[in-house]
Amino acid sequence: MDNSSSSSGVGVLDKTMSVLDALESGPASLAQLVRITGLARPTAHRLAVALERHRMVTRDSQGRFVLGPRLGELSIATGEDRLLAVASPVLVQLRDLTGESAQLYRRQGDVRVCVAAAERTSGLRDTVPVGSELPMTAGSAAQVLLAWEDSERIRRALVHAQFSGTALAQVRRRRWAQSVGEREQGVASVSAPISGPGGRVIAAVSVSGPLERLTRAPGRLHAQAVTSAAEKINEALHAQDAAPAPA
């Protein structure tokens, strides 16, 4: 693999970055890392294990390497995360419009992480705390984050999922998902996808609350508001991508 165009002149750093770059597109076995990066097998293994020790890389349930939680923590800590900067005011608007707690989720390996939230200002607080790790096998956000994955990852996830392949097909068709008591009894939610470069789904925006308010058909109440919020975030992200770089 020729990385000369992006070489920093510090060989070990360039090799380490090639491992992280390889994992950006999803989980990879050691053999896949070797193939993608062009590194020798012992080198790829040494770097991946070192990154794992620092939580920059972790492993999924199949033992494959995936990007680790430390990357998300650093991104949030810098205050420069474009998605969070764009999404935060939209989450507040979504909360105020629906009267329900709003969240933003990203996938990290076999879990989804709440990276931003806007809580209800009064009454019962149904929000998920920022930093919470939730399963990819239940909940409307899990459906959204999984629906556009490759068929093999979907097949593996469905083995233990509370939803079906038919449900994921509906999510892809209508571009929103709903859940009723999937992850937690008495709680319902509605989610929609956020897309990054190339249209890849990178996050899910959600509202959640008790069944007494959201009913057993929460999509009827809030699908339009949630999909509109997702569209606002998508448009803002893509506008930033299209903006010319400063001279």
UniProtKB/TrEMBL annotation:
GO terms for biological process: negative regulation of DNA-templated transcription. The keyword Transcription regulation applies. Signal peptide: none annotated. GO terms for molecular function: DNA binding; DNA-binding transcription factor activity. Keywords: DNA-binding, Transcription, Transcription regulation. Residues 10-69 form the HTH iclR-type domain. Residues 70-239 form the IclR-ED domain. Transmembrane segments: none annotated. PROSITE patterns: HTH_ICLR, ICLR_ED. This is HTH-type transcriptional regulator KipR. The lineage of its organism: Bacteria, Bacillati, Actinomycetota, Actinomycetes, Streptosporangiales. The gene is kipR1.
